[in-house]
Structure formats: C-alpha cells, structure tokens
Amino acid sequence: MKLREDARAEGLRLLDWWASHLVDDCGGFYGEVDADDRPVPEASKSIILNTRLLWFFSAMAGKGDARAAGLARRAADYIRTYFHDAEQGGLYWLLKADGRPEDTRKQAYAQAFAVYAFAEYYHATGDAAALTFARDLQALIEAKYWDSERGGYIEALNRAWNPPADQRLSDKDLDAPKTMNTHLHVLEAYSRLHGVAPTEDTRAALYRILTVFLDRFVAPDGHLRLFFDMAWNDLTLSISYGHDIEASWLIWEAAEALDDKALLERARPIVLALAGTARREGMSEGGAFSYEKSFDGHTDPDGEWWEQAEALVGFVNAWQMTGEANWLEAAEKVWAYTKTQYGAGGVSEWTWYAASASKDKIYKAGQWKCPYHNGRAMIEVARQLRKT
C-alpha cells in the first residue's frame, strides 16, 4: 500500500533531519532550530523537546537503526544528568543552554513524557537502568500528582513539591489544576510502560487512568472537555479537534494493552465517536485539519502540523477497527494535504503552519516542535498498515 510505503520513507527522512540539525557539541541537543533550519545555540533546553527526542530516536532504534540508537543514548544520558533533580526527585521544566536549571517547576505532563520515552528506550536497548528510571517516575506521579480525595492528576508542582502560583502548561492554556492534555499523556505513557514491561502495578495504574479519562474528559457530544478545577467543575471554553482525534487512537491503544473485554466494548463507540466528530467538524474537503473551535462559534481554520499527523493516525486506526473505506480515504486526503502544505516528503522538517496560512513562520525545532507527532504518525501508520 502506497500510504504505508510513504510513511516508512518519511520516518527515515525525518530521522535524517533531526539527526543532522539538533546535536549540540556543547552537550545534548540544541534547544531550538529556527524556521530556516539554523540552530539557535543560546536557546533554552526544554524537557518536552528532550523527552520527545528520546522517544523518537528510541522508536527508530527499535527498528535497527544504529545512528538512532546512539542519539537515543545521548538523549537519555543528558536527561538523567541535567534535567533530573537529584536532591528532590522529578524533572525540571527548562534548562539554560549550558545545562543549568532555568525553570525548576515540575509539570506532571513532563514526568509522563519521561516515562513514555524511557520505556521506549528500554524496549529498544534492554537498558535495565532506563526501565528503573521509568518505573520510579511512574511511582512519583502516583505519589505526588494523584488527587486521593477526588481522583485525577493535578497539573503542576514546584521544585519542593508544593502547588505553584500558575499551573499552566503553556500560554494557550487555562490556569486549571486538572487538564485533559496532561491526563492524555499520562495515559499514553502508562500504556507504553505496561506494554514493554507489564506488572500488576502497571496494569492497575493504566486501568485507573483510562477509567478516569473516559469518565471525566469524554463528553456526550463526541468531543473532549479540556479543563477542570479540583472538584471537577468544567472550565472548558473550546473544542480541540487535534486532541479529539489523538485521544481516539490513544484510548484504543490503552484498552488493547489492558485486553479487558468490558473495557474494549466501552471504549469502542467512544473512540469512533471522537474520530467521527473530528472528521465531520474539523476536516475540510481539501484535507486540512482545523485547530479548534470556541464555544462562542469562532473557528480557527489554520491547523498546525501536529493535528495533521494525529488525524492521519486516528483515521487509519478507525479504518482498522471498522474496515470502512471512508476512514482510509480521509487519511489519504490528509496525507496529500500535508505533503502539499507542510513540507512532508520534502527536504526539511514539517512547517508549523500550512503554506497557505496567513501566519508568521515559527521555529522548526523547539520546546513545542519535536519529532513526536509526525515521527510517531509515520511509525504508527506503517505499523497499522502492516496488518493489511
């Protein structure tokens, strides 16, 4: 199938770009590469970029790529040496370019990405210390972030494990203590850790986060609710089409990892409803995937690169679940649009926005631009289509 071959080729091409543009001779990886493919040596280094680099290089190393294995080892060593708080545990949010701590807050989201990345690194290398690191971080998430009174995971803590004045993950987010985005990536991380090194503890943790996600964040209208206060009062102001479609396949992945018949039966209609509303409301006739729609009716039609990548995986997953051709057709349409508008299949990393969008150019690599959404999409699509 051509889409499968395209995905395999694009995964290798993305590896080439990230391997040749990010290595910092002063240690680890550059914190930023600008829109014209030039490194920014003075840029701060974020835990999100570094854990996503570790995940992608490890996933490619797991396919036998020796260069990726070396880069994964470099990423793992840098995270454990510089981002890890040896005194109080957990991972810092941001480092200066020279590796000194710059922002020492500890987002649950960041700890989860490290679980995800080190589980993948263990899977690729068999490094027992990486598995211990991942398990210790999962135990830390459970001990520090779980709300034992009302359930769910709180968003952030400071270095000393106290609530910070501002819990936001980014400037786009509400200052809310419980968010869909963090829960989604705890779910993803726990799925992978259970998949590569299952224990009764990993199973129980995965079952709990999946149940919380289905109970709290999935709404009857086929969309996710995004922000809540500590008592689970809904603070959501918009629909995120990209997260709807991303959650659809990550929910199914978690349910399959648990292999629980009742949970699979519960998850199936939810997964297809999320994918269906995302396709119906968020995708244009030309294959573009929108960013979001606010509850007051305003729609931002200029999708970012990551929504296109997640739509590709989500639609292929729905096709695998149902066998209905319209899902595969939707995936192929998104892929064609992504090649035309975001530079997929070209000579560089994908652009942040479509070429037709009236937006300023943004960096190719940085805190929120990593080889994760698009790199993972290529790996996942190739894997899914191998079943056919």
UniProtKB/TrEMBL annotation:
Source organism, top-level taxon: Bacteria
EC number of the protein: 5.1.3.11
EC category name: isomerase
Pfam family, one: GlcNAc_2-epim
Recorded GO MF terms: cellobiose epimerase activity
Alphabetically ordered keywords of this record: Isomerase
A Gene Ontology BP annotation from the UniProt entry: carbohydrate metabolic process
InterPro entries reported in the protein's UniProt record: 6-hairpin_glycosidase_sf, 6hp_glycosidase-like_sf, AGE/CE, Cellobiose_2_epim
Catalytically driven reaction(s): D-cellobiose = beta-D-glucosyl-(1->4)-D-mannopyranose
Family: Belongs to the N-acylglucosamine 2-epimerase family.
HAMAP family: Cellobiose_2_epim
Protein's job: Catalyzes the reversible epimerization of cellobiose to 4-O-beta-D-glucopyranosyl-D-mannose (Glc-Man).
Record protein name field: Cellobiose 2-epimerase
Lineage: Bacteria, Pseudomonadati, Pseudomonadota, Alphaproteobacteria, Caulobacterales
